[in-house]
Amino acid sequence: MLTLDGEPESLKEARLLPDAQKWIKAWEEELKTLIEMKAFTVVPRPKNTKIITSKIVFKLKHKNGVVSRYKVRCCARGFTQTYGVDFTDTHAAMAHPTAIRTVLAWGV
To answer: What is the pLDDT of residue 85?
Structure first.
C-alpha cells in the first residue's frame, strides 16, 4: 500500500512500481553508505537475546513540486528495547549485503 505521497512501505512493494529501478538504486546507495561507514558488523546471534528489527523507509524528495530524488533509509527500531534489560547492548537484524543484492536481482 503506497503512502499518500506515493511512497512504498516495503522493498517488495517498491519492486512492483513503475519506478522500481529508481527505488532499487536508492536502496543500493543506502547499502553502500552503510558499508562504507562501517555502520554494522556481522556477528553470531547471542543466545537468549532479543533482536532489534529494522525498517526500510522510502521518501520522495521534491524540488519545485517535481520529484528530485528517491531516498531510502534503513532504520533500527530501537523503541523495542527495554531500559535495564537490553538497553546497553544492541543486536539488530541486518542482512548481508550480498544476500540483499541477490534478492534485488531476482525481483528485477
So the answer is: 60
